Amino acid sequence: MYPTNPIEALRRQLDTLGESAKKGFVRLNTPCQVDSLMGWLSVQRVLPRIYWRARDEGAVEYAVLGVVNVFGSLASLQADLAALGDIGGEQPDFFGGMAFDPGTPGWAHFPACHFVLPRIELKRCQGEATLSLNLRFDDRCPSTEITQAHACLDALVAERPLSPPLPKAYQREDSPSQKEWTGWVDQVTHQEHLRHTPKVVLSRETCLTTSETPNPWALLSRWQAGAAGCFNFGIQLTPDEAFIGCPPERLYKREGKHLITEALAGTTHRARDVQQDAKLAAELLGDRKNTLENQCVYQQILSQLEPLSHHVHLGDSHIVKLRSVQHIRRLIKAELHRNVTDQQLLSALPPTPAVGGVPRESALAFIRQHERHQRGWYAGVFGRVSHASSDLAVTIRCAHIDSETIRLYAGAGIVAGSQPDEEWRELDSKIADIMSLLGMG
Ligand SMILES: C=C(O[C@H]1C=CC=C(C(=O)O)[C@@H]1O)C(=O)O
Ligand SMILES: [Mg+2]
C-alpha cells in the first residue's frame, strides 16, 4: 500500500526541509504499516522507549523513542509548553511520568519526574499508522539538529513479531510479609490513629526472581489483550529495565479547559456466575468500608480542584468491572480557570487518596516510616501532556522488570472497618492478572 520505505520518506523530507520550516517545532510525517507497535518498540536500540494508550475505546496508540528534549521537573516542562505555544504552529506531545513520593529515594534509574519530547513517534489511530520525526529549531543549531535526526532514523530497525512470554519457575518474596501487614493494618485502624489519619493506602512489593525475565513488551502486549477499560503504558529508560502496566485509574484528562478526573477506590473480586457477580457489585456499592475509601478520594480531589476551577460536578457511584476485580468509581468534571496549567494540576492532584491517604502528609509519613520497599513510579503518574490536551493515568497494576526480577506492586486503602486478612486478599486480586500471565495464577 505504501511503496516508499517510511524511513526513506522521512530522510527525503528532512533533506528538503526549507529554511522557512526551520523555526520552533517541526513534525515530519509519513504513513507506514505496522502490525504491533510493541513488536516495533521491542527491537529498537534507541532509548528511551515508551508505549502509551489511553483507556478509551478507539484511543490513539503511541510508541515513541529517542529524545529531542528531556524535562526533569514540572516547571521546566511547563516553561517549554508555554515557549512553544507562544511560537504557535503545530505543538508536540510530551510523554513521561512521576514517582509516587519525590521526597524519597525511589528507583535507581527512574528520576522523580521525567518527561520527554520524543525524536520518533509511531502512532496508530483507527487502523492508520503514521511514523513521525520531531525536530526543534528554536533552542539549538539547525545543522546539529538535522544531523541528530538523521542518526536516529539510521538507527531504526524493522518490526519483529513478539514471542509469547513462557511460564518460568519464579521464586516469590513479599514485602511486607502477611504478619507485618496485619500489624500495620491494626495500627492504622486503631481509634487514636483514625482520629488524625482516616485513610492510609498501604502497599506490598512482590518480588519474583528467575534466571531470565520475559521480554517486557511481549508481556505488556499479552496483558493489554486482557485489560479492556485500562490504560496501557511501558517505559524503558535503560536497556535492561522496564516499567509496564495496565492501570484502570485516570489521574485526569484535560481538553483545553475541560477537566475529567475520578475517584476510583473500593474493591471486591469477580464471580464467574453472572448473578453472583452482580450481587458482589451491589454489596460493594452499599458497603460502608468501601464507600468510605471512595469518599476520602473524591472529597480531597474536590477540595484540590476548588481553587483551580469552577462548575465542578461529582457523578454518581458506579461499578467498574475489570478481569479480576471490580471497583467503585465516581467521575468528576470541572472547568478550569483561565491559565491553570498541567504543572498546577500535577502539583496538586497526585498522590490522590486512592494511593496515598488522608490527610496526605500524615498518610505519607506512615508509609515512609513503615514500607521498606521503594514505591518508585508505582502509584505515581504516567501519560501524555500537550498544549491542547493531556491525559494521565495513576500507575497502579504495574510491574518493574529487570533481567532477573519482576517486581509487582499492589496497595489497599485502609480505613475504619478494614480487616487485615481481607485487605491482604485484595492485594492478591489486584495482581492476579499479571500473575496468571506469568504462569503463577
Ligand atoms: C492502590 C491500588 O488501588 C487503588 C485503586 C482502586 C482501589 C483501591 C482500593 O480499593 O483499595 C486502591 O485505592 C493498587 O491497585 O495498587
Ligand atoms: Mg480497597
UniProtKB/TrEMBL annotation:
Gene3D superfamilies referenced in this protein's UniProt entry, alphabetically: Anthranilate synthase
Q: Which cofactor does it need?
A: Mg(2+)
Q: Name one Pfam family in it.
A: Chorismate_bind
Alphabetically list the UniProt keywords. Answer: Isomerase, Magnesium, Menaquinone biosynthesis, Metal-binding
Which residue range or ranges hold the Chorismate-utilising enzyme C-terminal domain?
Answer: 178-430
GO terms (molecular function) for this protein are: isochorismate synthase activity
List the catalysed reactions: chorismate = isochorismate
Residues reported in the UniProt entry to bind Mg(2+)? E293, E426
Q: Which pathway, per its entry?
A: Quinol/quinone metabolism; 1,4-dihydroxy-2-naphthoate biosynthesis; 1,4-dihydroxy-2-naphthoate from chorismate: step 1/7; Quinol/quinone metabolism; menaquinone biosynthesis
Give the annotated active site. Answer: K199, E249
Q: What is its EC number?
A: 5.4.4.2
Superkingdom assignment: Bacteria
Q: Any idea what job this protein has?
A: Catalyzes the conversion of chorismate to isochorismate.
Q: Which PANTHER family match?
A: ISOCHORISMATE SYNTHASE ENTC (PTHR42839)
* Similarity comment text for this entry: Belongs to the isochorismate synthase family.
Q: What is this protein called?
A: Isochorismate synthase MenF
Q: Which organism is it from?
A: Vreelandella neptunia
